[in-house]
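Q: Structure tokens for this one, please.
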Amino acid sequence: MLLLISDANILMDVEVGDLVAPMFSLGYEFAVPNVLYYEELEDQHAHLLDMGLQVRTLTAKGVGRVQSLSQTYARPGRNDLFALALAEAEQCPLLTGDAALRSAAESENVVVMGTVWLVSEMVRQQRITVAVARAALHRMRVNGRRLPWDVAEKALNELETPQPKTGGAD
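A: Here is the predicted structure, written as tokens:
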């Protein structure tokens, strides 16, 4: 099962969009660094643990990596750098919509995916319909979440359009 390390913003997007249950029904494991969980999620989002969110601890070497990353990248916050260091240590993708964190992760050759990918994946895996995805994205938008709305709409349009069959004659 593919492990995905998330920042707090992705989880908040999913909560605002009322997509927590569909997200955790995907064939992935979701985790956050312990520091990020206790500082940003525990008070208002502790129920995510019951849904399947994992809290993982970086080794001393991983914490040292956060220090190194913070000297290289001024913009991502400390907790975001913990997420990046954990994704590096686990050799798995990072879920983030934060531009500075995305840029740092890409510079460090960490695969990055965001909320639009996650919502699209829920549609692809038939956990939600395109209509439910649109409604979720609308809730995110009216609640001040920041996403690339044009990219989101394009992704949903592509999922809605039947793909031509390839291969031999029927």
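A few notes: Strands lie at 2-6, 28-33, 54-56, 94-95, 112-113. The chain has a mean pLDDT of 94.
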